[in-house]
TrEMBL record:
Keyword Transmembrane helix among UniProt keywords: no
Protein name: DYN2 protein
SMART domains cross-referenced by the UniProt entry: DYNc
Cited InterPro entries: Dynamin, Dynamin_GTPase, Dynamin_GTPase_CS, Dynamin_N, Dynamin_stalk, G_DYNAMIN_dom, P-loop_NTPase
Organism, as annotated: Pterocles burchelli
GO biological process: receptor internalization; synaptic vesicle budding from presynaptic endocytic zone membrane
Entry keywords, A to Z: GTP-binding, Nucleotide-binding
GO cellular component terms listed in the entry, alphabetical order: cytoplasm; microtubule; plasma membrane; presynapse
GO MF, one annotated term: GTP binding
Domain Dynamin-type G stretches: 1-245
Amino acid sequence: FVPRRDFLPRGSGIVTRRPLILQLIFSKTEYAEFLHCKSKKFTDFDEVRQEIEAETDRVTGTNKGISPVPINLRVYSPHVLNLTLIDLPGITKVPVGDQPQDIEYQIKDMILQFISRESSLILAVTPANMDLANSDALKLAKEVDPQGLRTIGVITKLDLMDEGTDARDVLENKLLPLRRGYIGVVNRSQRDIDGKKDIRAALAAERKFFLSHPAYRHMADRMGTPHLQKVLNQQLTNHIRETLPSLRSKLQSQLLSLEKEVEEYKNFRPDDPTRKTKALLQGWKILMGAGKIVIVAFVPVQMEFDEKDLRREISYAIKNIHGVRQVTGLFTPDLAFEAIVKKQVVKLKEPCLKCVDLVIQELINTVRQCTSKVSNRPR
């Protein structure tokens, strides 16, 4: 008998409002711990669920707000494989409560941060009672994994499809084929969860569903949550084996870079005046560099004008100055010159003010950079 643990919050609407990084670690004893309260070991998994909900609310508030700041949870158990899973929010289109107007794009950006990593497998979860072609999960997966090399399709809610319909073509990988295929699962309903339906009973009901359904019974051994776990284990192991060489190479180059940086600090003395001078000079370099960029970027401002219109305007100005007297001369009268130039100078005002605004913004950014560097060296 392997105990099944139930600790992820479930409910209607958007429940996962922060990414949950779940590390499963093989251990002789079973307990859980959070990174934000590492001193406490949880053995009651109902308390784990409550802590996930409480920690979500601490950062996002209690009115459906979201945050990209992850919750880190480690579960130690003799019944798990060493595996890291990331539970991400589902995409929501219409904001509710304290959610921002651009919530759809914020959640998409949050998801892309995690699924863009080449070392990760993507579980693209789609309910069976919606059109697969409209699946946000598959659409996002395709953006970062166009060849489908690391995407596994998961079809849920097969028991909620309209009578007379089924997802056989999808599960047989015929409709929108994926290299790693699709796996169907039947999870507990919200009523089952509220009624505290045992996970083992839910797995038995899932197995019975696939064995008894005429469209799925021929593939029952390739469906269900236990099969998904097995496939994940196998495919993730293979995927890690394939990506490990490039990951090792990347880590080695980062290590060399860090070792080189550490060398400079081996004989570090904070009171050494040369250290302080060097740090200050580096700060000034940033400041001067940014200023230089701004000045260079905005020196070549070109004014657009129509030469014919300008000549016509000069002619009118001269006539206005001379009035009815038909006086001709080699030079443009001072008053006419002044009137024309004033008009042209006014045109410079807007780009100059824009330039000033941009310079101010650049300086603010630079001062922030300098401040952050100086705050790391309080002495």
